[in-house]
Structure formats: structure tokens, C-alpha cells
Amino acid sequence: MSGYDESDAFEAAIPLSQRAMSARPAPYLDDLNPAQRAAVLATDGPVLMLAGAGTGKTKALTSRIVHLLMTGKARPNEILAVTFTNKAAREMKERVGRMLGAAVEGMPWMGTFHSISVRILRRHAELVGLKSNFTILDTDDQLRLLKQLIVAANMDEKRWPARQLAGLIDHWKNRAWTPAKVPSSEAAGFNNRGTELYDRYQERLRSLNACDFGDLLLHCVTIFQTYPDILEQYQRWLRYIMVDEYQDTNVAQYLWLRLLAQGHRNICCVGDDDQSIYGWRGAEVGNILRFEKDFPGAEVIRLEQNYRSTEHILAAASGVIEANSGRLGKTLWTEARGGEKVRLIGHWDGEEEARWIGDEIEALQRGTRQLAPVSLNDQAILVRASHQMRAFEDRFLTIGLPYRVIGGPRFYERLEIRDAMAYFRLAVSPDDDLAFERVVNTPKRGLGDKAQQEIQRMARSSGVSLLEGARELLAKGGIGGKGAGQLRAFVEGIDRWHAAVLNTRPELADAVIEPMLPDTAPNRDHSHVRLAETILEESGYTSMWQNDKTPEAPGRLENLKELVKALEQFDGLQGFLEHVSLIMDNDSQDATEKVSIMTLHAAKGLEFPVVFLPGWEDGLFPSQRSMDESGLKGLEEERRLAYVGITRAETLCTISFAANRRVYGQWQSQLPSRFIDELPDRHVDVLTPPGLYGGGYGAAGMGAGFGGGSRIEERATRADVYNSPGWKRLQDRSTTRPIAQPRESRSSVIDLNAVARFTEGDRVFHQKFGYGTVAGIEGDKLDVDFEKAGVKKVVAGFVTPATEAGDVPF
DNA sequence: AGTGTGATGGTTTTT
DNA sequence: CCATCACACT
Fold this sequence. Notes:
Radius of gyration: 30 Å
Structural class: alpha/beta
Number of domains: 5
CATH architecture of the largest domain: 3-Layer(aba) Sandwich
Largest sheet: 8 strands, mixed
Distance between the termini: 83 Å
CATH topology of the largest domain: Rossmann fold
Helix content: 40-55%
CATH superfamily of the largest domain: P-loop containing nucleotide triphosphate hydrolases
Number of helices: 34
């Protein structure tokens, strides 16, 4: 089945006009720095582009593509440019298009690993036991399937949750292990039945003519490895290969790339080992670290000039990342001078931290300081774990500060969207059992577990799909009175919709659906849009939500409307289904400006003038779990996360931590993150809430200053803080109010020099834990045996010496 | 078939 | 503490 006709997708590519090539020598080279230019010009042979944060990586990459096209080294259809996210792919496309001054109509091989794999797989599906119109399972379908298998295997689905199995299988697929290839050392997982279930799962997928995300890559690799002639074709066609975010590739992706690159060996991998933060989902930093071994003679080009951040921000980031071992090594530098140092501030607890940051954001927005007003759109809060967002959301809601959370549930992951999609899937391929299962009783049709089991049984015994099973069941009268009518209506509905789909797109009658080119001309008559509406109407799905009086119902209807609207850009329902998971972005661009709240992971690749990095506390960041599970490797990945966080900031970066945080409902004393100790002194401003008691500092033991790592403690004496330029500047600028307005004042001020004052046996007082005795001293941290709370490790700055009278010193 | 209750466990996430 | 989910109840 090697009958790939070279003339279809490839010919669709429109070669660049000769005019464009001869216009000017190479304007795209003009505004590149030497390293970038080298990366652009090193077209042949393997190249590793080590591009630090903010060094113009995308610019170099896109210029490289433009260069290849303009010099005629490659036609648009001969360049394979792979990214991880659709967003990145889209951006690359747009930028290349802009540079060329024309739409990049024909770069069929620019996309994500997954979308390109789908394209390839559709061609050769039969080689791995699929039909070319296979469906791609989402996580939900996948879990349901696995659960069925677990139950079928007579296992307790509680002790052996589908989620875990899904994770295991995903892990294996990331390593490009088919069931047969899973090493025996790994097979012990999941009650010793992991591989067995994996095998059954694959079997089931095949019978469903379906694939999960991991399969897209894995099947391609299998095909390449098994059919050298097919691999050769691709190797021949794809003369130039470029990979973005190479540090994030997993083994399967690595194999995929290596196989394809073995032809011309013109592979350019762009990445930054310091920004590898996806080890936990299978990314192998090793891929980038051993690039030169994999591709002997590789040219390594370092992009180190940063155009994004101030020198202080860069220095702070560098200071942190230097603590990692085994780096390829790279030092960011900038021509920019000056700017504010990275600010560091400690808070009493998480709420206080959120309050302070909220105030700070508002102050920056108003421009109360000499700084020009900063739009909310230009400010972001980057957290380690999404549950940290809550404190900010709560706070911002109460003060009416508009915010947006990035990276919430995706549009197409929402319940109503997936339900609607299941209906569309049934209309396109009525035998889609997973879709059938999903919506057969949504809206409620009186078809509960019992009825569904009957359908399942019938279908299985006749070896047909659920829809056909249901039909048979109806014919035989094997179903009770009330459900029968409803089921009949459902079945007839599917028939009707399917007929309508065929009518709209007659070519669908063929078993083989040609892969769509991304930019196919939209279907002008919009008949499929009307059909979609009809389906949702007739199925009763729309009215289900109309009759729903829960507060989220209107939003869901809104989303459905959006879904239907999105259809307009497509040629037909099936094209939509194919691409929906690829294009649907929830980038609802709102006109109102908003602060962004997101995880550090979600922030990779983004930049903001003002960045807040809260929650730098050991256990939270670095995450305890990472360290427990992956030891030093985990810690180093956390550190890279810190590096990513800091380097998101352009002009102002504020790191903060809280002394107390509620973790699972329990108040916990927190220690400042070890990463704080790694921030280089010279580039950090230790901020101090001005405090109501600047004067009473010593006596009260709760004056200005705050706890930090030991090094901070040494440098940030009160005098240092108050005399620091940053502090003075802030004071001078504080026309309306000081930098922080401590509302729960006394608790918000923490002493940094406190440790020196304590010795073992001292009686101390802690705001949240009450009275206790110092049991041990470790750097700036004290072990305190609290009367009520037991032994806790606390930062010295957060406790005060208890007076003889035992009174609270305020 | 739909609602209520107790047990459970609880980073990071794209495709 | 709080969300989620399986199970049991009506």
C-alpha cells in the first residue's frame, strides 16, 4: 500500500513566485544578530539551535524558513516544521506569511507532531489495522473504554482506576512501546496486568477504528520502521526539517524525527534545555543533551542575546538556573541597562499575599509611581499549581479587579461541546459506538443502564455497531414500552442526519476521506451549519439546556452557539470534526483589559512587562511531590520552572512567599523556597511592607523586614532595605500610599534578623500557632515546640520572643 | 431514573 | 478543606 500519489497534497502547494525571490537580496537577514543569522544560514546538515528565553528564537526559525524558500533551496511543501501546540504552529505560519508578504498557502508540513502524524496516518492507516477515516479519541472516551476493560478483566475499578491505567499506557506510548515492546521490568504495574490490558485496549481501538493521541505518533513510527519504502518517500520529500521546543520531545517524537531526518539530514532542532519542564509527561531532556551524538557533525548555535528582560531579571534567572547540573550551558545577556531589580517580599499568609498583589496591580495600573501606567493586560500572575489561583480569584472578585485564567478547561473539553460533537460524529459515522454511548441518553430518553446493556448485548452478539444493535432490538421488540419510542426516534434521527450529511457531502459515501488541507475553501452555502443546528434541535439537546435552570445553562447554550458559528469556517461536518481539537482555541479575546492568572507551565513562551511569582515556598515550589517522586531530577525541573517564570518578565518581576498557608484545610507553616536563596543578592530588592511600626521594630521583634533564605537575611538588614535605591524610589513615588497598605497590619510585617535573637529554650509566640519553645535552630529556621500545634519548623522572622508576662507584643 | 451521602484524595497538561 | 465520584436510597 505504498500508493501515495506524490501529486496531491504536494501539488496543492503553491510555489513561490520567482518575482518574490529576486526582489531584494535578503531583507530578512538585515535585522538578525550574528547568532541568529548563523542559524538561518546554516541550512544544510544537522543544527542545534540553543535558544535561551527571549532571544528571538521564533524570529530565527521563521527567517530560516523564509530563507529556504527565497533561495529556492526548498519548496514550501518540502519543509517539515514541527511544533507542539497549534498555537505555536499558527504563529509560525502567520509570521512566515507576513515575512513573505503573501499567504503561505502551501506549507502542508507545518504543524504539530500530532496534526502532521494524522495526515500521514490517514494515508497509511490500513498498515496498522485502521481505516483512513479513523476517529481520534479524546481523554473521556479513552477513560470510558479503559474502564470497561478493567471491569471486563474482573478487576476492582476502585483499586485500579482507569486514570492510572491511562497514565501508564500513555507513558508507554510516549516511549514508543507497543504492547509487545513493553519491557518486562515495567510490566509489573497495574496489578501485573498492565501490558495485558494495554494489548486489549489496542485491540479494542482497532475494532472501533479509533486512535488515541499517543497512537498518532506511535503508529507513524511503526509504519516508518516496518515499511522502509514509505519512510523513504517521506525522507525524500521532506528536505528540510525544523523542530521547535526540542527539549520537550519524548522518545516517540524523537524516533519519529530521527527516522524522517535520516534522509537529507537537514534537521534543525531549536530548544532550550533550561526550559524543559515537561519531563513528567514523557519529555526527555536527554534528547536535546545528546543531539550532537545523534547527529555527528552537528553545528551548535547559541542564541544568548536577550531582547526581553532587564539585566536584573536576567541575572536573577541565571543565578537560579546555574544551580542545575548537566546543562548545555548558555548565558543570557542584554544590552539593556538599568531597570528595577527583582523584587522579593514575604507575607503572613496566602490571603495577605493575594491582597498585596491585588493592590500592587492596581497601583501599577494607575501608574501612581513614576512608572507609566501598566495595562492589566500586561500583568500576569504565574503560579506553580492551579489551586493557588483561587486565593487570587477570590481577592480579585471582591475588589472587582478583572482577571482571566489561562489554561482552564478547553473549549472542546466542555461537556456540552463534547456532547454536541458526539451527535455530529454520529451523523458523520453512525457506527461510532463511543459517540452513541455518550449521547444515547443525553438528553434523558429513559434509556438507563438496563436498556443500554440490552443494546450492548444485542450489538455484540450480532457483531454490529450499537446503532445497528439498537435497530435490531427494536425490530425484535426486545425493549420496553416507554424507552422503545424514544430509542426509535433516536435511531431514526441518526439515519436522517447521516443521510443529510451524505447529501451535503456526497464524496463522504466513499470509505476513504481525503485528508483536508488546512485552508480548504469554506463551504459557501453553509448547509452543514444548518444541519448542525437541526441535529441539536431535533435531538432535543438544545432544549435540554434551555429547560435547565442551573446557573451554567445559559453559558452552555452560548458555547453551543459558538460551536455552530465555528462550523462556518469549515467545509463540512467531518472536516470540522477532524480539526476541531486542533483549532478550537478558547482565546475569546475580550475587549476589557484583564490580569492574567496562569500556571508556570502555561506561561512558557509568553511574556509580560509585569510578572508576579507568588508561592515560592518549599513544598509548594519546588513541589514536594516532584521532589519525592523524581528526586534531584525533579528538583532540577522545578528549578527550570523557576527560570521560566522569571524570564517571562520584561521589566518588573516580583517574587513572593507566605509564612503560612492553608493546605488541605490545615494551616501550615511554610519555609521560603530554596530557590529564593539562589537569587543573586545584587539583583534583588527586598521589599518590606512599610509597616506601622518602623520604629518599634527591634522591640516588638516584628518590624520591617521579613524572613527569607539565610543569604537574604544576611544582607537585608533594615538599614539595607531602607537605604536601597529601590526602596527609596518607591517611597519617593508613593504619592498616594506606600507600597503596601497593610490592612491586617501587624501580621503582615515579618522580621528578617530575628534568628540571631533566639536560642534554644526561648519562649516564643507565633501568630497562628500560639506559644511555644525553641527546640532547635537551623540557619534562619527554628524548630519550635508549640503548646497547641506541636513541633513546627518556622522562619525566625515569623515568631516573636514571648515576654515574661506572656503578652502579645502589640 | 434521578437525587443524596460518605469516602477519598488532592501538581504541572498538549494533542 | 473541598471537589469528585461511586454507590445507595427513594
